[in-house]
Structure formats: structure tokens, C-alpha cells
Design goal:
about 500 residues, mainly alpha
Length: about 500
């Protein structure tokens, strides 16, 4: 009798140890994040000059760090999700590459859109200096809280839209509707529709092109030797122009002619490099789509890394834009200075916070984007990454503001729905009764039309998960009004506590 009792006791001890270990792991990430926020506060207290409102900068530094963590946790998934979902990268590899390139982009080229986030959304003569600081603090905290909630429920949202909503809501709460630059807000709102539509369209077109030129050919390997280097050249040229126009403005701002020449030059270089590599790789693969997809693995990884660099350069402003405006307002005493300064220490808080947020909290959203919307392989993921860069370039040429989150998720929907469309067409054109291919008792006695209808429903569930389409779309729609309402509430609370 003693042995069974002893075994039960040992099992209880082992279960307790496992529970303790799991609890420690779950608390490790928030603990590290808290240490970072405390470090940001201490850093700001040493850097900022002593004054009656210097404590505001310290508080704002903590809020900016919190927002940077949330940008890393939510936004970066859009760049690395397809690469992880297609198994081109492991989660650890994606975190290392994304963290490195996000931080590099934020430090080397970040801050170009700070003025839009921090200054252009509000009319300066409607707010005094102290009120403006409270507005920016409320906007930053409210947008961070909203993005944090979206991350918890697994919804990829636009941090840019969250910040815009926060600034609008806090501005209205402080000085009324007249304090908001509504034409700027209206222009930004266009991206709600433009971003996912363009991303999905370009991704579907790329996938259809690859199907027509490579994967549906009888001799797939020979077709791949011709077209994959051309696609790599397209990617190289597009990303060169993308980085020159969007990702490196803080370092260098070339004219249109130079951008086009750079794109053409690097496209030729990409083709020359890809030709022998693809030919060498093609000697080791079989004439099957699954093996052809492996030829896109390295281009996909490069594309994901470059997207991360450009994302860090552009979206770091969502974390430090309002913070930079607060620092400038405290130093100058004016609500909206003509030139918002961007000290290196401010940029570092954003860069470190994004990389840390990605490492600590990013895997969940990476899996949602890469695995839970539709099934991706290297080819489809490559189409998503390349379409994101093409969409940003096209929108910039048209003068339309777009969201990288909406583009990437829209591109994933685009390739998924294209696959559904193709699958349904193939079902329609198949002469064999559709229900004969599915050993489902519910369809064995059905008419071909009834079986076809059932197969369409099965294909829809299999290729694109409708639940995620609806939940993500709902999160997009309510991001601006929700963050605006939350910012108005936070502004009133901060006014009571600080003002």
C-alpha cells in the first residue's frame, strides 16, 4: 500500500513543479517589459533638463515605451507571419531577423513621419502648451491600451490608426471638434478600404502569374529557371525603390529619376545573382509544385527582412511621434513647434521597445497572421511580401496613405480567396460527380448540384477561415473610434490627476 501512496505523492509534487514552472514562464515576459519601462523612466529623468514640467517627460517616456512594446507585439507580425506560416522560417529565426531589422530601421531611418502623427492632426492655435502635452499623453496611452487589447484577443490592427484615433479623441476632449485637422484625418481614413484592397489585388495577381508561368506548366523546373530569377529581379527593384522612398528618407532622399535608376540597376543585379543560384538549386529538386516552392524560400526571407527594416523606419513614429512632440513642447513651451526635434535617446526607446515587444509578445500574432487565416507555402508568402512593397509604392505615387497591417493581411486574404476561386472552378469543370471525391455519407445520395454546393462550403472553410476575416475586419473598423473614445476618457482622467 505504501508504494501507490508514494507514487501519488510524487505525481502531486511533479504537477506542482510543472505548474510553478509554467507560472514563472508566464510572468517572465511582463516582468522583462516592466524592467524596460522603468529603465525608460530612469533614462528620461537623467536626460531631460530639470524644470517644473520635467516630470511630464518622464511619465511620457514610460507611456512611449509601453506603446513601442505593443507596436512590436502586434504590427511586426504582418511582416514575419507569412514567412513563419509557410515554414520558410522558424519562430526563433523570425524573431531574430525581425528584431534586428526593425531596430535597425528605427534607429537608422526612423522618424520621417513623426510630424504627421505628432503635429499635422491638430490645429496648433487651439491648444496651449500644457494642454497639448496632456493631449499627446492621452493619445499615446489610449492607443497603446487599444493595441494591447487587440494583441490579447489575437487581432492584427493598425497602430497608425490607433494613434490617429487617440490624437483625434483627446483633441476633441480638450478643445472641441475645431481642434482637429479633419482633411488630414479624412485622407488617412481612405486607407481603411485602399490598403487591404490593393494588397489583396496585387498578391492575387502575382500568385495567378506564378501559377500560369511556373506551377501549372508540365515542365515546372525549366519554367522556374526562366521566371524565378525574373521575379527575384522584380523583388530587388521594388524593394530598392521602396527603401529609397519610404525607409531611408532620414538618411537620404533621392529624386524620382534617381529612385527609378536605382530600382532598375538593382533589378538587373538581382537577376544576375539569381540566375546561377536558381539553376544550381533546381538540379536538386523534383518536378513538383512543393519542390518548386523551395526556390522562393531565400527571396521570401530577404523580403521579410527588408519589410521589417522599412516597418521599423516608418512605424516607430507611432510610439515616439507623440512623445517627441511632448519633449519639444516641454522644451520650447509652445503647443506645436515648427520643427519637432528627435533626440537619439527618444529614438532608442522606440527601437528597443519594438524589438523587445516582438520577442516577448509577438509569436501569438505571428501565428495568427501566418497560420490561422489561410494555408501558406513559400510561393504564396512571397506574393504577400512582394505585394506589400508594391502596394506601398503605388499608394505613395498616388498620394494615398496606407496601413502596412491592412496591406499584409489583405494580401493574405487575396491569395486565399484566389485559391478558393480556382478550387471551385476546378470542381465545376470536373466531369466526375463531385461527391464521389468526398467520402462523406451526407453527400453520397445527394445530387451533383447539392454535392457541389457542399464542396464549395468545404473549400471555403478549408482555404480561408471566415471567422478570422470577420473578426479582423471588425477590429479594423472600430480601431479609430474606440481609441478616440478611450483617449478622450484618458485625457479627462489625466486632467484631474496632473492638471
Amino acid at each position: 500500500m505504501a508504494k501507490p501512496v508514494l507514487d501519488k505523492d510524487l505525481k502531486r509534487v511533479a504537477g506542482l513543479e510543472l505548474a510553478t514552472h509554467n507560472l514563472a514562464r508566464s510572468l517572465a515576459a511582463p516582468g522583462i517589459a516592466l524592467v524596460f519601462l522603468l529603465a525608460a523612466a530612469v533614462w528620461a529623468s537623467f536626460v531631460v533638463a530639470d524644470g517644473p514640467t520635467s516630470y511630464m517627460v518622464v511619465i511620457a517616456a514610460v507611456i512611449a515605451g509601453y506603446m513601442a512594446l505593443n507596436v512590436g507585439a502586434n504590427d511586426v507580425a504582418n511582416n514575419m507571419g507569412p514567412a513563419v506560416g509557410s515554414k520558410a522560417l522558424t519562430m526563433l529565426g523570425a524573431l531574430l531577423i525581425a528584431g534586428t531589422f526593425e531596430a535597425a530601421g528605427a534607429l537608422l531611418a526612423g522618424g520621417d513621419v513623426v510630424s504627421t502623427v505628432a503635429r499635422d492632426l491638430l490645429i496648433g492655435d487651439q491648444l496651449d502648451g500644457d494642454t497639448f502635452v496632456l493631449v499627446m499623453m492621452a493619445a499615446l496611452l489610449a492607443s497603446a491600451l487599444w493595441v494591447n487589447l487587440a494583441t490579447i484577443i489575437g487581432a492584427p490592427v493598425s497602430t497608425t490608426h490607433a494613434v490617429v484615433g487617440g490624437v483625434v479623441g483627446a483633441g476633441i476632449a480638450s478643445a472641441g471638434i475645431g481642434s482637429v485637422a479633419w482633411p488630414v484625418v479624412g485622407t488617412i481614413s481612405l486607407s481603411w478600404v485602399v490598403s487591404p484592397a490593393l494588397g489583396g489585388l496585387f498578391a492575387a495577381m502575382l500568385l495567378a502569374f506564378i501559377r500560369a508561368t511556373i506551377t501549372k506548366r508540365i515542365d515546372k523546373i525549366s519554367a522556374a529557371r526562366v521566371w524565378v530569377p525574373i521575379l527575384v529581379a522584380l523583388m530587388t527593384g521594388v524593394f530598392t525603390m521602396y527603401l529609397a522612398t519610404k525607409g531611408l528618407k532620414r538618411i537620404w532622399s533621392p529624386g524620382l529619376t534617381m529612385v527609378l535608376l536605382l530600382g532598375l540597376g538593382f533589378a538587373v543585379l538581382g537577376w544576375l545573382v539569381a540566375m546561377p543560384l536558381i539553376r544550381h538549386q533546381s538540379l536538386k529538386i523534383e518536378n513538383r509544385t512543393k519542390h518548386i516552392a523551395k526556390l522562393f524560400r531565400l527571396p521570401l526571407i530577404v523580403a521579410a527582412a527588408l519589410l521589417s527594416f522599412a516597418h521599423g523606419a516608418n512605424d516607430v513614429a507611432n510610439a515616439i511621434g507623440p512623445f517627441a512632440a511632448i519633449v519639444t513642447a516641454v522644451q520650447t513651451g509652445h503647443a506645436q513647434s515648427a520643427d519637432i526635434t528627435l533626440p537619439l535617446w527618444v529614438l532608442l526607446i522606440g527601437a528597443i521597445g519594438i524589438a523587445l515587444g516582438l520577442a516577448l509578445f509577438g509569436p501569438r500574432l505571428i501565428r495568427t497572421v501566418g497560420e490561422q487565416i489561410t494555408k501558406l507555402n513559400e510561393i504564396r508568402a512571397y506574393c504577400v511580401a512582394l505585394s506589400a512593397a508594391i502596394t506601398v509604392l503605388a499608394a505613395s505615387a498616388l498620394g494615398l496613405p496606407v496601413s502596412s497591417t491592412h496591406i499584409a493581411v489583405g494580401a493574405i486574404f487575396g491569395v486565399g480567396f484566389l485559391r478558393e476561386y480556382v478550387a471551385i472552378r476546378e470542381m465545376k469543370g470536373n466531369a466526375v460527380p463531385v461527391h464521389a471525391r468526398f467520402l462523406d455519407p451526407a453527400t453520397l445520395n445527394a445530387t451533383p448540384e447539392e454535392a457541389l454546393s457542399k464542396d464549395r462550403q468545404q473549400a471555403g472553410r478549408r482555404l480561408v477561415r471566415r471567422q478570422h476575416v470577420l473578426s479582423i475586419a471588425a477590429a479594423w473598423v472600430i480601431t479609430v473610434p474606440a481609441s478616440a473614445a478611450l483617449a478622450a476618457l484618458v485625457f479627462l482622467v489625466l486632467g484631474l490627476l496632473i492638471g
